[in-house]
Amino acid sequence: MPPSSLLEQHIAQAIAAANGWIGFDQFMQLALYQPGLGYYSGGLPKIGTMPEGGSDFVTAPEMSPLFGEVLAVQVAQALEHTGTHEVWEFGAGTGALAAQLLQALGERVTRYTIVDLSGDLRARQQERLAPWGDKVRWLDALPEQFEGVVVGNELLDAMPVQLLVRLDGVWHERGVGWTGSAFAWADKPTTLRPPVEVEGEHDYLTELHAQGEAFIHTLGAQLVRGAVLLIDYGFGESEYYHPQRAMGTVMCHRAHRADDNPLVGVGEKDITAHVNFTAMAVAAQDAGFEVLGYTSQGHFLVNCGLLSKMEQLPLAPRAMATKLMMEHEMGELFKVLLLTKGAPWPAVGFTHGDRTHRL
């Protein structure tokens, strides 16, 4: 029996045990992270530049090594201002970003720690990062207290979300049931609400990011000294809950194609949701962080010196690096949020185009 069928059986049993309904956040958690069966814990290639290799999507470090090289400028500044010497990367993918940061930072980093729930991706990371030997280590969970600079690239979008849907003016939590042969949407009236009022009476689907906010709170409780750098696709609150964004942001990725139905092909494709960066910034302030900056990936990379580095590249790799900052590619949809513990300092990545006031 293929893993996807075993996973479907496991989720169907969870639904039965919960009287026929589970929240979408629980469904997403099982679909992505169920040990040995979920998308991130199975053996699929997942990340790569072309679907011919079996991958489903590409991230910025695979597109161009300049991504990590330029990101290292901000990481180095954060290490200096916080007086720390360790980088912590969550969800390190293929290890491409770690390799780029290790190469660029050199002796400024004494240890590079990766926290990743995916066993097969960990194996790829270990192979790729072997040249750095014992400088790199892997952990399954955070220690009670730690210090350093935390990096998360496309981390928050893979965290399970709750779905809220307004139908005929009444808010429901959208969950998942099992028909006996397939998963199906099932809605329950709820007291949950979006953090801002969504104008209008039209039907409206959106997400809540409780798990992402909880992750920020955990970092706040356990990071004694350091900074947190988060890069992901998403929006501020006013744009996230805009009345015209009525279909939500949940998307699936398989073979470099996107679809909006997470209930089919379970375990065989990625499931993501755009990030509400206002929610993350508010959670960060509640957790004792200072918000140092929020801007688009394009502005951030240019501030950190991308253009001068691109000039040295041949045409083909220069074209790939351009995608990192162009508005119609990754430059505008992706945002960067920088947090720190302690007194604020002027962060180089937000010199121009900072949008913190728009959160």
How does the overall form come out from the CA principal axes?
Answer: globular
Helix/strand-derived category reads: alpha/beta
- The total of beta strands comes to 18
Main sheet, how many strands, which sense, barrel? 8 strands, mixed
Distance between the termini: 48 Å
User: Rg, please?
Assistant: 20 Å
Instruction: Outline the low-pLDDT stretches.
Output: none
Beta-strand percent range: 25-35%
Count of alpha/pi helices: 13
State mean pLDDT (0 to 100 scale). 93
Helix content: 25-40%
Structure, briefly:
The chain contains 13 helices and 18 strands.
How does this model look, in words?
This protein is of the alpha/beta class and 359 residues long. The protein has helices spanning 3-17, 24-33, 60-63, 66-82, 96-105, 119-128, 210-222, 237-240, 277-286, 297-303, 306-310, 315-323, 327-331, and strands spanning 22-23, 46-47, 55-57, 86-90, 111-115, 136-139, 146-153, 162-167, 170-178, 183-189, 204-208, 223-235, 251-254, 257-259, 270-272, 275-276, 290-296, 334-340. Helix content is 33%, strand content 26%. The model has no long low-confidence stretch (mean pLDDT 93). The protein contains 13 helices and 18 strands. α5 (96-105) links the parallel β4 (86-90) and β5 (111-115). α4 (66-82) packs across α5 (96-105) and α7 runs parallel beside α9. The strands form four sheets. Strands 4, 5, 6, 7, 12, 16, 17 and 18 form an eight-stranded mixed β-sheet that branches. The longest helix is centred in the N-terminal third of the chain and has 17 residues, at 66-82. The protein is globular.
